[in-house]
Amino acid sequence: KKHPYEKMRSRLRPGQYEDWVADSLKLAQEEVFSPDLKRWEVPSSDYKKKALKIAEEQLALAGYRMGDLFNQAFTTISVPTPALQF
User: Fold this and answer.
1) How many Cα atoms sit within 13 Å of 59 on the Cβ side?
2) Are the C-beta atoms of 76 and 49 separated by less than 8 Å?
């Protein structure tokens, strides 16, 4: 409910795997591994909330991408059958 398909549709970019990787790397570098995160320290509650929000959104995006790939792979193609003659 938080991340409806229609809202995320523009970010799906089917088959553009290199773009998916680049987007994920950028997100990790700019948002996840931020200066707020200190080695050997417990992350702040604000950081945890932000990380959870990002994770939920990325999981929804991945689910939609996977669903679209499955739909494409398993779509039934109608093949005309020859008329039977008796």
Assistant:
1) 8
2) no
